[in-house]
Design brief:
This protein is of the alpha+beta class. The chain has six helices and six strands.
Length: 160
C-alpha cells in the first residue's frame, strides 16, 4: 500500500482497532437517523478477490511462495476464508478504499490489458456493492503460469 499520509484527507485509515474493521456504508447516512450500516474490511477483500478472478488471463492470486505456504495452511480446518482473499490487501475508510492485488497471469496474455481489465472490474464491483469510492487499485504481477506447469506446488513430499 502507498503511504496514506500522501493522500491527505482521503478518509482512508489504517489500524487494527475495531473501528477500522467496520466502516460506514460509503460515508452516507443511508437510514435517515434510523441506524447505521457498517461494512467490514473483509467484505471489500472478498469483492475485490471475486472481481479479479472473473477476468480472463488471471490464473491465480498471491505470490508463488505465499501460495505454497497457503496451500498447506488452507488444508487446516477453518482456513477457507484466507484462501479466498489470498493476494488481496485493502485499506477501507468511511468513504474510500484502496486495494492492492497480487496476481499470477496466464502465459501468452497481454499483461497490461489483463491488469487494466482487473482494475476496471474491481473498481466497478466494489463501488457498486459498497458505495465506497475506490481511489486506487495497485496490481503486482507476481508470476506467469507456463503451459506445462502444475497448478499448485507439490507440498506433500516436504510435509511428511
Amino acid at each position: 500500500m502507498t503511504d496514506t499520509s500522501q493522500r491527505g484527507d482521503s478518509g482512508i485509515s489504517a489500524g487494527s482497532s475495531a473501528a477500522s474493521k467496520r466502516q460506514s456504508f460509503g460515508g452516507r447516512d443511508q437510514s435517515a437517523g434510523q441506524g447505521r450500516t457498517v461494512i467490514a474490511d473483509v467484505v471489500v477483500l472478498k469483492i475485490a478477490a471475486m472481481a479479479t478472478r472473473e477476468v480472463s488471463g488471471v490464473h491465480a492470486m498471491g505470490n508463488v511462495f505465499r501460495r505454497a505456504a497457503g496451500a498447506v495452511r488452507d488444508a487446516t480446518p477453518g482456513a477457507g476464508s484466507a484462501s479466498i482473499t489470498r493476494g488481496v490487501k485493502a485499506e477501507v475508510g468511511e468513504r474510500q478504499a484502496a486495494i492492492d492485488l497480487a496476481i499470477v497471469a496466464e502465459y501468452d496474455v497481454r499483461i497490461g490489458d489483463v491488469a487494466g481489465e482487473v482494475r476496471e472490474n474491481v473498481i466497478s464491483a466494489v463501488e457498486r456493492m459498497t458505495g465506497l469510492e475506490v481511489v486506487e487499485v495497485n496490481i503486482y504481477i507476481s508470476d506467469v503460469r507456463l503451459p506445462d506447469e502444475e497448478d499448485e506446488p507439490d507440498t506433500e513430499r516436504r510435509i511428511r
